[in-house]
Amino acid sequence: MRYRVTHTTHYRYPATVHGSLNELRLKPRTLPLQRLDQFRMEIDPQARYLSEYVDSFGNSANVLCIDQAHTAWSVTAVAEVTRFPAEAELPFAPPLPLVRARQLLSAERSPEALDARLMSQPSALLPAIPGLLPRLDFEQDPEQSIEAVGRQLVGFIHRNFRYRPGQTEVSTPLLEVIENRAGVCQDFAHLGIACARALGIPARYVSGYMETVPPEGAAKLVGADATHAWFALYDPTLGWLEFDPTNETVPDQRYITLAWGRDYSDIAPIRGVVRGGGESHELSVSVDVHRLDDDPRLANVPTELPEPADVGNPEPAFRHGAA
Amino acid sequence: MTMSQAQTSTAALGPFQGYAPTPGDSDELLLPNGCTRPHWIPLVTALGELEPGSLRDIGRETRRLVDELGVTYHVYSDPAGVQRPWPLDAVPHLLDAEEWAGLERGLTQRARLFEWIIQDVLGPCELLRAGVLPPEFLAAHSGYLHPLRGSLRPDQPALTLYAADLARGPDGRFWVIGDRVQAPSGAGYALQNRELLSRTWPHTFAEMGVQGLGGFFRTLYQSLRELRPDVDEPRIVLLSPGSLNETWFEHVLLARQLGLTLVQGQDLVFRDGRIWLSTLGQLERVDVILRRVDDAWCDPLSLDPESRLGVAGLVEAVRQGGVVVANALGTGLLESPGWPAFLPAIARFALGEELRMPSVATWWCGEPASLEHVLQHRDSLVVRSIDRSEGGRPLFLSEMSEAERTRLCAQIRAQPTRFVGQEHIGLSTMPCLNQSGSLEARHGTVRAFVCQGRSGFTVLPGGLTRVASRPGTRLVSNQEGGVSKDTWVLRTDRAPLGPDEPVVEAELGILQPSSLSRRVADNFLWAGRYAERAEGLIRWMRLILRRLQTTRFESRGKAEATAQMLSALTHLSGSYPGFVGKDGRGRFLEDPEPELLRLLTDSRLPGSIPAALNALQNTANALRDRLSAESVRVLTGLREIAQPLAALRDPFAAEGILEDLTVHLLALSGLTHESMLRRHGWRFIDCGRRLERGLLLVSLLRATLVLPLEPRQQALLNDMVLAFAESLSEFRSRPVGKRDAQGLLDLLLLEPENPRALIYQVERLLEHAEMLPRLDPGERVPEYARHLEQARSHLRMALATEWIEPERPIRARLDAFLAEEQREFTAVYQGLFAHFLAPAPTLPLVGRERV
Question: What is the pTM (predicted TM-score) of this model?
């Protein structure tokens, strides 16, 4: 499956900004089942400085500096991604009970396992909540495998939490989500991670996109898609296993992975610092996941892209990361 | 007398009478058998030869020197404690050369080990791969900052300065009880202590062969330079959190000693992969940053977004090699109290060596066996959170209630990776001078410092010794009233100092030109304004008190001049409603003393005299690195004189204090004018003074001359106004016909030769405007200068104005004119602020072409 993802973010400020410095994570990862065919960013106004590095989780990140005065700026990331279907069958392994898996993990020292173990502790947005599982009434059977725990979590969250956009903000603490029993995909991913870590399972936050299919007969609206988030658990024999609590499912080839980290704060698509700009800002985001294969309903979507704006003078990427 | 006799007897002499170490703990002066340790004997002998009472004099002299040099630190919990005198014991701590040599080896090994560790855990992670260190130990610590993984360069030391807190345990050995790795403080205070004590003990110091400290700081400076072998003359700055920081004085001192530019986060900007110092009119490249800001606060872009202390883009600049930070960002991780649990194994793995210096036995609860050990031995162990940022205070379970203990144990079980258990180490005691002039045994620790350069490690031959606030307590902290000591490491040869090594460490004087950042310029301007404001308020207050004193027995309510001068005070100070509101005219004018007392005593009342003085002190403190020693002395004097104001009960008793304050403020003004180089810093001070003087004068004139009184009353008031403007004798020397309100206004507004006249302030401000840099080359005349020109042309046009309007009860023309001048002056300040002091839009680059 081939997709073109167009992800536009637009900032507007009430007062003049005299300069801004941003860190972007908008370039999808390359993975065994995902290939990045093409990527470009259009930035307006023009960037004075743009560099690229690979962060400690292996995500690609850009640092972007705009130094001319402006009251609005936008960045459009256009990525063409090929997504391969997972192999039909997983390699056979008897399900490992959680207790065994944890023991195994504490001695596991492969690079992948070490990275996973670094994801086992509380993180910036997910501090440890004492008594989290009893508070949620989440009961877990120690004979279960990690994969079963993941499925159980997905079902549990989907059953007990309402999907309510607008209910939460990026900074909504997990406790509030638990109290309201409502949130968005980001909150559900965070909740799944917190529960898994409380059980001693390394867990990470995955951000990305998901293709949405319009109702039969209706044309697909450009920009109707959104960024999405889900979580992954680490099993010492099976590796990382992904779960989407928002849709109560296991991500498949309709999912495109952008980045992963310990929680949202590690991989926010854009974080920045501005000089001036007044008290607040307006932010609008539009995402379009466009299937490049032969879906007739998508025929009327323009395929020609505008020429990319000159993004200044990108420095050669400084390789970064522990790998 | 034989040596052994001396050892047993001297300690019982003179000031040592009653010196009693705590049983069970080691003592620095006495061996367990009660004999004096040999390296103390020369000092003990010297002390024994002193006249009774002279040790107390030395203590007093030490405190006086601390005041004279203005050595301060900041107690966070004390609202008035912005500048506390630095507590220094007059008796030094002595360390024997041989023992020190062993410590040096141990400290060097430890610094080398920590360097290896941080390079590894932010780099290849061999410790994790080999299973020497569990990854959960790193991940549980908030100092493990992912954005910094991969940011270190193996050819560049991550730890330029490392510090360890040492304590002598009951077994007589030195133990490391804490590591300060990211931005160690105290080395500057150690240097300051040395300067102070070498002045109080000049002879003893020279005779005992104390090792000097200057070489270490030269090495430190050299090591900072070596961080940028690619730059010929690297620009090194010291990044401080600012003048409210606990150790601000030390930042100032180090910046001066090492010739670094003292900056705060707001002074620096990221551009093109580098960090620049934003000064008036230009950007200057920064190559090395010696930081006193903790990791997470250093960059709101990549680290904690809430931080206002850092520089957005610093991590990116480090990644690009555009700037080097010392100590490297990410080293805060090494301050986890859990490291000692792993250090012996790491030392064997990394260096192939045994750890030379023991650290406190530590169990990291993230390992199941350690967790059980800690919970089992919870009554004998100390429990700590691994994050110092989360109040890593030691928790003594043995001192807790049953409920508290149960709660803590549950917390440890729930999050074992976040806790360590440690053995409790008893500290040794050492002699400290008490109030009555004798010596008492108090518990203390020594902070030792290691500097790493390209060629290796250097240990400061000395350190910062800190002792508890009183005998018996083991809590050693400046924040808790602890006292510091100079630390004398004696030389092996005990040779007196030769002439080539001065007793007093001379300033290293590797000075670089220090540029004026916007923040510093703003502080200069406000220092000028506050000094002038304090001076003006005090002057008018004194005139009022004198006037009230002479009319004390008259009926005040009828004296209109009295009412005017009191309401003028409210206008001058801006302390409304005061004498101005309805209530004020009635009640306060009848009995003005309570309101006057408030203005004299209440530092929280905006517009009061102590408020103006405090504002001056705080601003001057923020400029500490730019002030001359004389200015510091005058400011210290000013603070001491102002102190009794708070306790005043009678405003008329303030006269003597106000007189002293005026003399000191004049001295400050004199120093500004006679001793400061005519650079931009001086210009901003002078701008502040001129602006404030103009504003005070205009509001005084509006309050006293717009509503004319009955002639005799008005004449009284006019004399006061003239006295305020130091123009009374000039006025009296003028012909009788010119000694009216018109003549007064001419003299105070338009006389170009009168340094107190309004026109004079405007002319000086215009001269400054001519000399200050033009930041926007496209703009012909900056806006603030346009307002100055307007103020001047108004004044010139007013030359022939008849201010007196005999037929009208209110001098409306005068009032309108003064109001206009007031507006112009305010606009000048706002314009200056917008032009120079507010964050700038874009600035041209200097020193380098655009990348």
Answer: 0.87
